[in-house]
Specification:
mainly beta, Immunoglobulin-like, 9-stranded antiparallel beta sheet, 6-stranded mixed beta sheet, 37 strands, 50% strand, elongated
Length: 445
């Protein structure tokens, strides 16, 4: 027993203080030797460990004395070969033709490690014909072009941006004006402006000594931005000019004003939010800070519904045929990105009916939200009227429907959405000359 104990003790003592296994980077190379920051290079390496399992290959770049993490590659087994592309980021305050070193650190699963430094690389700064400033995660996009005097500075002029906003800078955007992350994107991570992927945050901007921002410069060398600005542009709409009121238990703000056909109006503050939908028959949304009036010149009252975040309008004199047609019913309403609006088979206030815009003699346009008929919502349908009263029902003998086949009706005035139609936003062009209703689907601006 003593001999067994002695032998066991000796065996244990022999392992005490034994050196860890050291993994070996047998060969390593990165190509090409000259590259552009923001592009990829290819790393090839062969590694082994005769005793322990390999764990990771950690690749870092040393740029102007700054160590930048590039990529950590997970490994398996006692030997491994790597042949893959790695991204070399552009960082701030780096000149063209900068010397770059790569540091490779290999570890095994017992924390044994070895390192290899690769030298002889040159990184060049990228330059672009244009970049894009993407406001508030896509509300608006402006094009930035290089300054003639400094190709590292990209500028946009003649813009209208609230004096506090958030943004990213993108090299590419998609067809539907979203950031294309296959290109370079500047955002914010851990309070620092740098290249980011989809997980990166927006950059917050604020300039207290102006009312609006009219110019923007992005310094791609220092990763900083500067702004120029001035006073609010006119004519404009701001919530401070509206009067608070309540309609059917909902919070409204109203403004009596004169509107001019084809006039562009600036909108500021909460009225500039992309969640606010302006009556799509009477206004064209140009960007977050500008709308265009499409109706006839005259005096109107604007109604901003705080709950549903849309703006509708009524003319100063009660609307009536032939200048307007009014539509009231159940399961329909003005478009909104917020709570669904429903007319209420009445003419008592602006929430009860929809106003159409006359686009030619006896031809009218109305854009409406339509619920899909179901037992949950009960009877859904609507009627056109010549004025704000039950005596002015606008009837027809036979109506034909073109475009999307979602409506049906019989002689008279009732119009019904077909059972099973998709709930959504639809534009109706009502032609009383041809007794025809043309229907198309509409996407909210």
């Amino acid at each position: 027993m003593f001999s067994i104990f002695f032998l066991a003790s000796c065996e244990k003592d022999e392992n005490i203080g034994a050196p860890p296994s050291i993994p070996v980077i047998e060969s390593a190379n990165i190509t090409p030797s000259v590259f552009t920051f923001g592009d990829s290079v290819t790393v090839t390496a062969k590694m082994s460990d005769a005793v322990k399992l390999l764990s990771t290959l950690d690749i870092q770049a040393i740029i102007n004395g700054r160590t930048v993490s590039i990529q950590k590659i997970l490994l398996e087994g006692n030997s491994a070969e790597v042949n893959q592309k790695i991204f070399v980021p552009l960082i701030d305050n780096v000149t063209d033709n900068t010397e770059v070193k790569f540091q490779l650190k290999l570890t095994n699963n017992k924390n044994g490690s070895s390192s290899k430094e690769l030298t002889g690389f040159t990184g060049n700064r990228p330059y672009f014909s244009k970049l894009y400033i993407v406001i508030n995660s896509g509300d608006d996009i402006y094009t930035l072009t290089p300054q003639a005097s400094n190709s590292d500075n990209y500028e946009a002029n003649g813009i209208d941006i609230n004096k506090y906003f958030s943004y990213k800078i993108a090299q590419k955007i998609t067809a539907d004006n979203q950031i294309d992350y296959s290109g370079l994107v500047w955002g914010q991570t851990d309070g620092k402006v740098q290249l980011v992927d989809e997980t990166g945050g927006d950059i917050f901007a604020f300039k207290s000594d102006v009312e609006i921002l009219s110019s923007f410069v992005f310094d791609n060398y220092h990763f900083t931005s500067s702004f120029g600005g001035g006073s609010y542009k006119t004519p404009n709409f701001m919530i401070d000019d509206f009067t608070a009121t309540e309609i059917d238990g909902e919070e409204f703000y109203t403004l009596e004003t004169t509107l001019t056909e084809n006039q562009e109006y600036y909108v500021y503050g909460e009225l500039a939010s992309r969640t606010v939908v302006y009556n799509m028959d009477f206004f064209e949304r140009i960007n977050s800070y500008k709308i265009k009036f499409l109706g006839e010149t005259g005096n109107y009252t604007l109604y901003y519904n705080k709950t549903r975040e849309h703006v509708v309008l009524l003319p100063e004199t009660p609307p009536a045929y032939p200048d307007y047609i009014l539509i009231t019913g159940s399961g329909i309403g003005y478009p909104s990105k917020k709570a669904k609006e429903h007319a209420g088979w009445n003419f008592g206030n602006v929430r009860n009916f929809l106003l159409t815009r006359k686009i030619s003699t006896d031809v009218y346009q109305v854009t409406m939200f339509i619920l899909s008929p179901s037992d949950q919502y009960g009877w859904i349908g609507f009627k056109p009227y010549e004025n704000t009263g039950w005596g002015g029902e606008k009837t027809y003998d036979v109506f034909t429907y073109t475009g999307l086949s979602i409506l049906e009706g019989t002689a008279g005035s009732n119009i019904f959405p077909k059972i099973g139609i998709e709930e959504g936003i639809y534009r109706l062009t009502i032609d009383w000359n041809a007794n025809n209703i043309h229907v198309e689907s509409v996407t909210l601006p």
